[in-house]
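Throughout this chapter, every protein is written as a compact record of paired, labelled lines. The reader may check this reading against the record printed directly beneath this paragraph:
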Amino acid sequence: MRAIILQHAIYEGPGYILSWLHEQGFATDICFVYKEDTPLPNILSASLLIVLGGPMSVYDEETYPWLKAEKELIKQAIDNNIPTLGICFGAQLIASIYGSKVSQATNKAIGWFPMKTEEGQTKKHFHFPENFTSLFWHIDEFELPENAICLASSPISPNQAFQINNNVIGVQFHPHMTPYLLQGMINNASLDLTNDPYVQPAQQLLSAPASFFVQSNQLIDDIISYLLLKHKDKHR
């Protein structure tokens, strides 16, 4: 099994995802798409695609010319039914591929905030915990793709997670977070920590209870396991 991970900034790595994949016996190929002249991998050789977060916006193609090729790669993965998980900017990329609007959020959100699962899901959809808390770190937000179902929401930003068919899940928050990864984000993106209503200071971010990390990481286990199981069932 081979997982391809698309990374957009040196300080926004896969975090907990990497250790989970290695425990499950995956070979991992981390593609640093933000580095000049980085070749994109052969997506058809992948069993799983993970698209991580990043400080850029989906409409910044002039500033980041590699964005266009990356979007084409993600679309190729989805069109070939490769299980795909998008996190924050990664979810925004998927939404934009499907023609949904991605724009500056009404409320900039950086901090540990509660969410709830959305109603209207069926047995074929992934089910989030009824209430849970995870790390938000986003300035932009996506509108729900037309062919997607909303899986989780928050009063701060209503579209927090979506599912398309059985092979694509996008989340606006960061369930793969670890204390080490969080410290790196704070060190490298401290200018994001402005005095806004839904932006928590660095000390508050770092003093989150261990249960927040544990619950978030368990969600990663469940999401990826779900995507892989649905893919396996489809090819039986």
About this structure: The mean pLDDT is 94. The beta strands are 2-7, 27-32, 48-51, 84-87, 102-117, 131-142, 148-153, 161-164, 168-171.
